[in-house]
């Protein structure tokens, strides 16, 4: 089981945590955009009533996204931690193995067995925990991806409502619609990338 | 890695592990010591992470691994104790005796199972079956929290980085020509040791001990009169030399 061929679990989990952290930052921008949109819609008056209604949905979407990415980010950090502990336990096992070979014929060679077995059990329990957490994380990522699809719908609706508002408000409202679409697309990209990273983990497990 | 018994009586045994031919070239060679009593064993300055497999292999040639009940770290350096994260998995019931000052730092090497027993600045004692060992303060030599281990029965002082020499890994284990050995020690002591005041304090304390063997963590063991020669030489040595002296007019 050469170490170099093992996927670097803890690095991947850390990358996912970083991606989700960035997703959370972008989601916060959506929240800001939603509040700008609301004040603009209020100034635009009756013509932008439809748009004003949409800002509530944008708001909801932003807070759902912020919360979900926060939770997923924390989980990914926890997974990264488990993966680091696993790597340490693996390293200990490799070192015990190494010592075992160097000490062949030593009078107390078998006294290593208990340490080896204990560390192996510890490693296995970490792996099990890791696998469970990854499945959990994956389903949360899927859920978030689904949630984000509504962002595209909201953006399209915003465009329609912007043209209803007409006049001087049409252009800035369109900018807002575009911002929501861009932010959602960026979060989608990060979520998709994270899911790809995790799928490597699933396939790459070397035992 | 070589194992050498350096002392034995009815109650215990001192062993040196070192001169590892498999050691990666660029890491400093180090001596690890073990005191083995009837039911216990203490590993002193158990070494760096790179050395761990060789160390563990040599230890189980001497004792069952669970007999290693105590570890000692003179200070926090990586060549002293960066193997801790691995010993922690091998010896979950063991205790680590180390300066209180470094607890928060040494734990960075990874310690989930082993107990940290903090040695107070004034030092302390450790009882292993019939053997009583003393932790002798050697602060600022070179680490700001630092201890040596003295065994009054064996008259051995494990002196950490004091008495260290930089020389090839295949060098003999015992100093055979003190005058010639000086050139291998001088830079190490002048550059790594920061304080003449700390040095004088340590020399005064150690001069009161009866020492047949002074065993440093690098280089060679000093035996008999060479211990006194070392103390005399060290007392005249100006240390902390990376800071230029102020010229008095
Ligand atoms: Fe040191
Ligand atoms: Fe050292």
UniProtKB/TrEMBL annotation, chain A:
Keywords: Coiled coil. Residues 127-154 form a coiled coil. The keyword Coiled coil applies. It comes from the Bacteria. This is Chemotaxis protein. The lineage of its organism: Bacteria, Pseudomonadati, Pseudomonadota, Gammaproteobacteria, Cellvibrionales.
TrEMBL record, chain B:
Residues 29-218 form the Metallo-beta-lactamase domain. It holds the Pfam family ODP. The keyword Transit peptide does not apply. CDD domains: flavodiiron_proteins_MBL-fold. One of its GO terms (molecular function) is hydrolase activity. It comes from the Bacteria. SMART domains: Lactamase_B (SM00849). Keywords: Hydrolase. Coiled coil: none annotated. This is MBL fold metallo-hydrolase.
